[in-house]
Design brief:
By secondary structure, the protein is an alpha/beta fold. The chain has helices at 2-9, 51-59, 61-64, 80-85, 96-104, 148-161, 177-182, 197-203, 230-235, 237-256, 258-268, 274-284, 302-314, and strands at 27-30, 36-41, 67-73, 91-94, 109-116, 121-125, 141-144, 169-172, 188-193, 209-212, 224-229.
């Protein structure tokens, strides 16, 4: 859902013809050759966040792991977790908060690796508005997409900054985060990504100011995670281990040569804006890998997951404590054992 909103707000979308956000044909790409079939559904259209997956496909990492990976693009960005829960795909990329919500509904899902290991969601404003810290929001209008946990982000941020919520006007602008700023309908937005919308605005000379969620009071979380059913983890752990290790090799290749990796991404998805994708990949490189020294690619910090789950419970975004308990596992990562 969040990626759909970001994509619809984007000035350059990708890979497939879109009539409108959420209205497009499903697209499947992947590696050729024999191997165990594995269906991976993206969270939204291919973009810089997925660069390591396309690099792994191009360099044969999945094929060498004995896997015939097929990457699918969802026709509706709200469905990947439901589809993996129903067994329609083997794995899906989603977001830590969305996984918590799905588990709260009883879906038997677990995150097996973090792809983007810190929040991308941000408060973004045009440079001329001079909103550089949360207290600058006093007396301002903030646009968002009407997502409950992002509303709770704003409440948390304002409380920490000592700004009363009645001093900030919150407006649901749907998918029109960037247009709402450019038209001056709102002073700032909450929901765009510091590695995407903010970069687009900078490339247009708008000098965006960015306030990152995890720097102003929202508990840190993993923006993008790889999700499977619990029974898939139990019954196909060796296959999933090979899959995760191959994906790790793809992202490590991106780190070695971001430019070549973006070229691979754009060749696979010709509609992408190469300049934007390269800037986004370079900005995101650090978030593709754990900040804790010695931890493997895909690491999900158990303490952070516990803290974020407790925050969701405290804000009644989830009501079942089991939604947060054991929502992630590191057992498939390098050096962690299967």
């Amino acid at each position: 859902m969040k990626r759909c909103l970001s994509a619809c707000a984007a000035l350059a979308l990708a890979t497939v013809a879109l009539a409108a956000c959420g209205e497009k044909a499903e697209v499947t790409t992947g590696s050729a050759g024999a191997g165990q079939p594995l269906r991976l559904m993206l969270d939204w259209v291919p973009n810089a966040d997925h660069v390591g997956i396309y690099q792994g496909l191009s360099e044969g990492d999945f094929a060498q792991a004995g896997l015939a990976v097929r990457v699918q693009v969802p026709s509706d960005p709200a469905t990947p977790l439901e589809l993996v829960a129903a067994g329609k795909v083997d794995a899906a990329i989603s977001y830590e908060p969305e996984l918590m919500l799905a588990r709260n509904r009883g879906l038997p899902l677990v995150a097996i690796a973090a792809i983007v290991q810190r929040p991308l969601t941000s408060i973004i404003s045009l440079g001329s508005n001079r909103i550089t810290q949360p207290r600058d929001l006093r007396g301002k209008t903030v646009g968002d997409a009407g997502i409950a946990y992002q509303h709770a982000y704003l409440q948390t941020i304002l409380a920490r900054a000592g700004v009363s919520t009645d001093k900030v006007k919150e407006v649901n602008v749907g998918a029109n985060l960037v247009p709402a700023m450019l038209s001056r309908r709102v002073d700032a937005t909450l929901g765009g990504y510091w590695n995407y919308e903010a970069i687009q605005l900078a490339q247009r000379g708008k000098r965006p100011n960015v306030i990152r969620m995890d720097e102003v009071g929202v508990p840190a979380y993993d923006e993008l995670v790889l999700v499977v059913r619990r029974d898939t983890l139990a019954n196909r752990s060796d296959e999933l281990h090979r899959f995760v290790q191959a994906m790790a090799r793809g992202y490590k290749s991106v780190r070695r040569d971001p430019t070549a990796a973006v070229d691979t991404l754009v060749r696979a998805n010709p509609g992408l804006d190469r300049k934007l994708q390269l800037a986004s990949v370079r900005a995101t490189l650090g978030a593709f890998f754990p900040s804790a020294p010695g931890k493997p690619w895909g690491w999900q910090d158990p303490a952070r997951w516990t803290a974020y789950g407790a925050w969701m419970l405290a804000h009644r975004l989830i009501t079942n404590p089991n939604a947060a308990a054991d929502a992630s596992t590191n057992q498939l990562l390098a050096g962690q054992g299967v």
